[in-house]
Input
Amino acid sequence: MELNSKVPDVPIEQAWDRRKFEMKLVNPANKRKYNIIVVGSGLAGASAAATLGELGYNVQCFCYQDSPRRAHSIAAQGGINAAKNYQNDGDSVFRLFYDTVKGGDFRAREYNVYRLAQLSLNIIDQCVAQGVPFAREYGGLLENRSFGGAQVSRTFYARGQTGQQLLLGAYQALQRQVAAGQVKMYARHEMLDLVVIDGRARGIVTRDLITGRIESYAADLVILATGGYGNVYYLSTNAKGCNATAIWRAYKRGALFANPCFTQIHPTCIPVTGEYQSKLTLMSESLRNDGRIWVPKRKGDTRPPDEIPEDERDYFLERKYPAFGNLVPRDVASRNAKAVCDEGRGVGPGGYGVYLDFRDAIKRLGREVIEERYGNLFDMYERITGEDPYRVPMRIYPASHYTMGGLWVDYNLMSTIPGLFVAGEANFSDHGANRLGASALMQGLADGYFILPYTVGDYLASNKLEKVDTTHPAFRSAEAEVACNIKRLLDVRGSRSVDSFHRELGKLVWDYCGMSRTAEGLKYALKKIPELREQYWREVRVPGESEEFNQSLEKAGRVADFFELAELMCLDALHRNESCGGHFREEYQTPDGEALRNDDEYCYVAAWEYRGEDNAPALHKEPLTFKYVQPAQRSYK
Amino acid sequence: MNLILHVWRQKNAKDPGRMVRYEARNISAHMSFLEMLDVVNEELIARGEEPIAFDHDCREGICGMCGFMINGVAHGPERGTTVCQLHMRHFKDGDELYIEPWRSRAFPVIKDLVVDRSAFDRIIAAGGYISVRTGSAPDANAIPVPKENAELAMDAAACIACGACVAQCPNGSAALFTGAKIAHLGLLPQGQPERDRRAVAMVVQMTKEGFGHCTNIGECEAVCPKEIKLDVIARMHRDYLHAAWTGRQKPGFREDQPAEEPMAGNRR
Ligand SMILES: Cc1cc2nc3c(=O)[nH]c(=O)nc-3n(C[C@H](O)[C@H](O)[C@H](O)COP(=O)(O)OP(=O)(O)OC[C@H]3O[C@@H](n4cnc5c(N)ncnc54)[C@H](O)[C@@H]3O)c2cc1C
Ligand code: SF4
Ligand code: FES
Output
């Protein structure tokens, strides 16, 4: 299959303007005749649904929570990037573009990233006009901070609740369209299949999570904005309900899945305390600005931290990376924490934790300054762990946080199924092999507010779409498949809970396709995962019925899909014989232990095609070319 | 530690529901309240019983999905904390806990501890926004906003729409939730053009949804996990009355819903 990125053939600065000009427009009077389905109400979905509704299209929007406002975008803390250069510190669209391409370790499409940097300017304008209460300076202008090791201050934030405030802005715009009758919202509805008719995406099948009814919805096109699949690891910073089901079903209907092994592990999360642990909580990266990371020099040293003298502590990041110290990028910090714990020098229950110590910062700056900078984070830490980080060093450990991989899309955000568009974390675009802090929020909103409204119109105006409604046989057969799948799960009536399987799967993926990977480990996982999956279908117990509110059944379907996705992740990780960004293959590293790319052989997007249950997926490659940023080896020494 | 739980079990909206006694055994102090319920549920599944249904998603106190009454207190005993962030170290061995869903006319029970809070979405749809067409916004720094106002707006905007305020209020009023949005938008220059209209439309919708009147009891503030202050209710009243006096708003009013009615409770 030829993967055509449809990037405009003009210099990068003009590309988006040119594309907007080339695109066909839908006559305003005709917009109301088109139906659009948007699955997802996070930053990407809510902004798309609100804008398309405002333009006059008939929109139906779906989410699995009880309200669109609860999408997991709500949990983003740190901030959102924009190349406004309000601080006059040398930022520009080109610099944001450059940083993002480099941060992604040269595995993203340049033209997409450039457009993202351009649109970042409009996003901030839009959000401020909506009433997003960003932090301000005394003069009343917007405040910025530097984030994730960037050398300019380009991050806009609303306390530690940036995602919440951006999402509420998009949600309010969405509710305005709901009131205007332009958007019909279906909360507590889970998409369980995509309906493709004559090669085009024409609708979805959902389950009403209150009544359990299987329902069909038809449209002229479908947009998926269903978020990331980080919960494949079971423990992650994602919400409990985050899932891969929507994109996975689309994959099985013919959409290519790109770079599934590109996942991001965030270094500063609160460590696991026991078997019962249900999720991991992120502690903002900003803590690394003042906190010092260390472990005891000696293995199995169980003394309390304040009894370990200075010369018996190993500040391993400062030791190995004197220039960047504790501020090395996420992947580097995470891998090093894992390495010292694997050596048996980890701290806390279970031995998988490292100290993040504020003792010296408090001595240097005074408690008050630290309180002002991090007070709410310290409170949160204390609430969860019961320990006072002003007195006892925090314990942190990396956790699954973000997935760069996702459905393959072209420059117009359309997948390989015509009429199926994918936005936000659900697609693979823009971040390459590693995402920089504060850029996911930016991407979700760029996709939803500023890209899809144009490209969707072009698709509708350029294609003659037959009228289709839910009486079409394709809906009947998709409904039947969904019902059959549910019945199969309920009929197993085994002895083990869904969660216990999910936990076991998550551990496998974490151990062999997590922070660092080896061919041997991946091969082992590829043998183990199918075994466990078979056991799942033999032994899982899903209580209750289909025709009712049934949370066990919801989980069971999601975990079934995670099993299949996990296998594809390992396959992708095994095929990519190089290290890049979040994908670290131990066999491929520099003498200093840095990721060693292989640009000659792997400078491409790996897009996988489903070929039925009994066949291995087929690999398609979209070659990446770098005309504006020259690939270089990252170094943080 | 071991605990005795009395949990509200209700199969669906039609079922009358009842309290059922469970034992939670070997609970670690590090667990969150929801993790404790996970453990109980795993046991129920192993015994072939139906697990307890409760809403949750982020489990970090921000999505607003979780929430129920613990011994008559919304979100339980810790101030400024949702049940997903409430840890078991605040309980002790042998404690007996009564766990019930939000009880309010406007929040019908769906199953067990799960309720329908869609009334909140309709209140926002009535006017809890600033009308700005995508792409039509001026430069973000074109209108300076005094830092104090931005901070106050942020305080109010922190509401997570969990519904605890309604559940705890003897009148079942949604004034804290509605006031929080009215205050957030009304404190910003961008929110001024629609300020009157917004206040009236949202307050009218709140009444239509069957929420009770606010009589300044203040229980809502005490249980709010985001510590939204009662001031926001005062702001709501002020904006509403201002709109009524100047008569600038009309939209949202219906013949069957005289302008005075929604605030009647407040005059008592
Ligand atoms: C703890 C945390 C902190 C973060 N901090 C930052 C930060 O500071 N800056 C930054 O830029 N990024 C941050 N990120 C990343 C960023 O928040 C996400 O990548 C982004 O918000 C994803 O938005 P989205 O719209 O793609 O998906 P989401 O917000 O996850 O929305 C997914 C939507 O799809 C719906 N959905 C999913 N599956 C289905 C289905 N099968 N059927 C129906 N509906 C479905 C859900 O209901 C939801 O509405 C953070 C992420 C986490 C987890
Ligand atoms: S005001 Fe407080 S208690 Fe009420 S919904 Fe908002 S966050 Fe919950
Ligand atoms: S689960 Fe999100 S606030 Fe509790």
Residues B 159-165, 176-177, 180, 224-226, 228 surround iron/sulfur cluster (ligand 2) (CB under 6 Å).
